[in-house]
Write a structure and sequence with these properties.
alpha/beta
Amino acid sequence: MIDLDLTGRNAIVTGASMGIGAATVRLLTDHGATVAFCARGQDAVNELTAYGETIRGYVADMSNADSTNDFLERATAEMGDVDILVNNVGASPSRNFLYMDDADWEQLFQLNMMSAVRCTRHVLPRMRAQQWGRIVMISTVGALYPNAALIDYAATKSAMISTAKALAGKYGQDGVLVNSILPGLIHTAMWDRAASELAESTGKSQEEIMAANSKGVPVGRYGTPEEVANAVVFLCSDAAAYINGQAISVDGGSSGHI
């Protein structure tokens, strides 16, 4: 029998106001973990904490070092030492490279990449001490197939994969496994926004654009946040005790690389 039981484990999930982050919080809780998460707004925190008694939510701006550190310290003080970290928070603004200034690049790097660095740095010593830990970076298949419209997003997410690979090689001997998950076409607010923007410029409906997008996926549809969360829970469990340093695509077969 495959063992996905996470009873007794404490987890942190960043950026869980909706989509993949929220689905991950719920599924980790369903498998027995106590979960602390952050979101930008109090409404999102209230909604998700209502799902279970072992969920703790905090308002935080993960692009800001002080806000990030405050969240980590509060979560650890109230929940206890962290066994599982899911670095999920991120943004994917669509913009033109020639009209982006240094501040645009820096802001997204702080949110997508440095939040993961800060959170990992916070939990890693304890994971090493107890000889058990799971760190999952939520990246994107766009890191493998970068698009000019999301150039800074792809760059930050590629950096997350590289960081995970390096940490996996360094700390696997301490029982700390570090992997990346690369979602593909997942039906989240990001893709709804992209389809809406394209609809405005093409005159097509958002539904038509999303249907056309899904035709390029071998399984013929968008994935769901819950299907990404399934992969997260597996990697965080003892069933995945020999999986380390991997970048796993959850994309319905869209990635063509070997």
